[in-house]
Write a structure and sequence with these properties.
The protein is an alpha+beta fold. It has one domain. It has five helices and seven strands; from the N terminus they run H-E-E-H-H-E-E-E-E-H-E-H. Strands 1-2-7-3-6-5-4 form a seven-stranded mixed beta sheet, with helices on one face.
């Protein structure tokens, strides 16, 4: 599964290692607000790719290694993840829904352990209301972020989110943001500063 997923991510230019010498997504990325963008990928086995991310979640949650300490799920959910990976069941879309965000420009190549995070979505009940905070597990590698929701987003049926979730159809819609404006750059800066190394985000940096 891992080899297939890496090949698929590279083929669709979802990870930096599939960009060759390019430094940005270019025409694949549609900007809709300042530096924020969106891209759509069609004819993709999104169910299999969702299973790959669920396998990462299972591995992290089942591990005793310190770098995976933030990733915990109930024994019952861990068993479902295991059975799903073994092919003995297919979980519903509402079970640890997966959303992707891609860095639209190349930045510093680095590794980052999965962490607990919060993703914000527009309020489904009040157009001017505060965004809804959703707890997630955040997995990062090679310019791609997978937010795995700990629960179905409140007020957001998985059907309503549609192609924003992996596995809903053969298409997927992905949000994009330049590395220099991303939370990933901020996380990297923090890790390096704690280790004594230096990394300074560019002027005008805004974390997303």
């Amino acid at each position: 599964m891992d080899s297939w997923a890496i090949s698929e991510l590279r083929k669709h230019r979802l990870v930096w290692s599939g960009w060759r010498s390019d430094q940005q997504l270019g025409e694949l990325n549609t900007i809709f607000f300042k530096s924020l963008g969106i891209r759509s990928i069609e004819n993709m086995d999104t169910k299999r790719l969702r299973l790959f991310f669920h396998s990462l979640l299972w591995r992290a949650a089942a591990s005793d290694r310190d770098e995976f300490s933030e990733i915990t799920v109930s024994p019952e959910d861990l068993a479902v993840l295991r059975d799903e990976i073994l092919g003995s069941l297919e979980s519903p879309l509402s079970f640890f829904p997966v959303q992707l965000t891609q860095l639209s420009t190349k930045g510093v190549v680095h590794n980052h352990a999965p962490i607990r995070d919060v993703k914000y979505l527009p309020n489904p009940y009040m157009s001017n209301g505060s965004p809804v905070a959703l707890p997630t597990f955040r997995f990062y590698f090679d310019g791609l972020i997978a937010h795995i929701h700990c629960a179905t987003p409140l007020g957001y049926g998985c059907e309503a989110l549609g192609d924003l979730l992996l596995g809903s159809s053969t298409s997927v819609v992905i949000s994009t943001i330049p590395f220099e404006d991303s939370a990933q750059a901020l996380n990297l800066s923090k890790v390096l500063s704690e280790s004594g190394a230096r990394f300074a985000p560019p002027d005008g940096f805004v974390a997303r």
